[in-house]
Amino acid sequence: MADLTVLLEHVEKPHNLSAILRSCDAVGALEAHVVSIEGRPRTFNSTAQGSQKWVALQDHVDIESGIIQLKERGFRLFGTHLGVSATDYRDCDFTGPTAFVLGAEKWGLSERAKHLMDEALFIPMRGMVQSLNVSVASATLLFEALRQREMAGTVPTSGEGLDRDRYQQVLFEWAYPQVAEWCRHQGRPYPALNAEGELLEQLPRSVKLRC
């Protein structure tokens, strides 16, 4: 689904970032967005189970640019934080283009991010702790969005969650990642595939060996 994603503000811990990408992959989200702390390299651990290969991670220099880009693409942004105007997540509509915005493990969303949200939401808690781990909160929200879309009958099953050109691009990059990298380096389009997913173009032998 190209219309379901997360935007993470300073979520740095490898375990949490890995778990969030794994949840994105599990529900069928195509990509995730991150704003990292300058100078801190991003790493993953075994929790990701390789999901970082299938969920594209888009970097933004700051939270404002990430929010603006998603809004320009038609996403409604739901920020997770407690506040008098926040809505129980179960009462929100996630069937349209939806981006969940979550903050750092310790501090949550910045004040700037909170003011730029379309809607604030919260996950009700019954215990003494006020919030869930950020990766658990992400999974809770993503699977609620999936549930709502299943109920509405809008979950794509055969690639219809992407326009045709984007679908063909993603299919090629997943099937032939090294050939795709070579094509980008050469500045040339990807070769066409037949119905069985085989390359329809003769490539240099050194490239074909990497298919």
TL;DR?
With 211 residues, this protein is α/β, with parallel strands linked by helices. The chain contains seven helices and seven strands, in the order βαββαβββαβαααα.
Describe what this molecule looks like in 3D:
There is one protein chain. With 211 residues, the protein is α/β, with parallel strands linked by helices. It has 2 domains: 4-152, SPOUT methyltransferase, trefoil knot domain (Alpha/beta knot); 164-208, no CATH class. It has 7 helices and 7 strands; from the N terminus they run βαββαβββαβαααα. The protein has a 7-stranded parallel β-sheet with strand order 3-2-1-6-4-7-5, with helices on both faces. The protein starts with a strand and ends with a helix. The model has no long low-confidence stretch (mean pLDDT 87).
Q: Helices and strands in order, then pairings?
A:
Blueprint: E1 4-9, H1 14-27, E2 31-35, E3 56-59, H2 63-72, E4 76-80, E5 87-88, E6 98-102, H3 111-115, E7 119-122, H4 134-152, H5 164-175, H6 177-186, H7 205-208
Parallel strand pairs: 1-2, 1-6, 2-3, 4-6, 4-7, 5-7
Helix pairs in contact: 1-4, 5-6
